[in-house]
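4.2 Preliminary Data

To establish feasibility before requesting continued support, the project team ran the inverse folding procedure on a target of 151 residues. The structure was first converted into the token representation described in Section 3, and no sequence information of any kind was made available to the design step. The complete token record follows.
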């Protein structure tokens, strides 16, 4: 197992670890778009993670999302789940999702209507690992910046 897989994910419960490692090994929506409307590069200097997020919009909805990146399992799995979830959603829906996810990572609990988070709930254990918060939120910072640009 490469060191990046051991770091972080191993501290989570077995079920959550499986979901995270599955996305890390087989990232969804990975790659680049031919004509992205937004392209955001984010780096996490503490862990060495990088994420480049590319989005196309149709009106106020994200039509396509792709990412490329390198780094620990938590950062890459979070990007994979995010890119998969954002397609078809409106800017308002995504701002809410980003704030629900940020709360999950920083406090470990889901908001009342946390059902929209789906698989992202696998990251609730990251709340106990403060030095991993930036890893889990890296891709979401890129998403927020892209939404801001677009708006
Ligand atoms: Zn990391």
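Position-by-position output of the design step:
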């Amino acid at each position: 197992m490469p060191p990046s897989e051991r770091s972080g994910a191993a501290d989570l419960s077995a079920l959550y670890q499986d979901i995270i490692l599955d996305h890390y090994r087989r990232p969804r929506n990975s790659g680049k778009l031919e004509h992205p409307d937004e392209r955001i590069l984010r780096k996490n200097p503490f862990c060495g993670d990088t994420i480049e997020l590319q989005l196309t919009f149709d009106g106020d909805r994200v039509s396509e999302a792709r990412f490329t990146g390198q780094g620990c399992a938590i950062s890459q799995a979070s990007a994979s789940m995010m890119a998969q979830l954002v397609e078809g959603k409106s800017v308002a829906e995504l701002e809410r999702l980003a704030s629900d996810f940020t709360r999950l990572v920083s406090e470990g609990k889901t908001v009342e209507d946390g059902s929209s988070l789906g698989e992202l709930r696998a990251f609730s254990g990251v709340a106990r690992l403060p030095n991993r918060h930036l890893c889990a939120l890296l891709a979401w910072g890129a998403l927020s910046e892209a939404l801001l640009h677009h708006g």
